[in-house]
Write a structure and sequence with these properties.
Blueprint: E1 3-7, H1 12-23, E2 30-34, H2 38-46, E3 56-60, E4 63-66, H3 67-76, H4 93-111, H5 123-126
Length: 130
Amino acid sequence: MKRIVLFDGACNFCNANVHFIINRDPYAHFYFSSLQSDKGQELVQKFAIPKEKDSLVLIENNKVYTESSAALHIAKKLDGLWHLLFLLILIPRPIRDGVYKCIAKNRYNWFAKKKDSCTLPSSEIRRRFL
């Protein structure tokens, strides 16, 4: 079962989150694709993901999770105590998504939009990018 994380490839914060996930996913549960890539756009169309969902999307078992639900479902599979964050799913979605949207709306201001350089991942990690 592939779990695919779509992310904003032009966002430093989103790229940092991808590295965060990779570093806490020793069993390679997640594969990644930037929303701007051809594969990302193919998945956006295939799963009818709205254009305004531009920061983090999780596709798992042919189901799409967005906003806080995506983040929490990702956390559930991470190594360490990160899976405990999934308990936040008990908070009503409008409240969770409100916090998520505030961070997503300000991510370019707080963390800048583009990186000047990229780290070159190992071949093992590169295989996880679609």
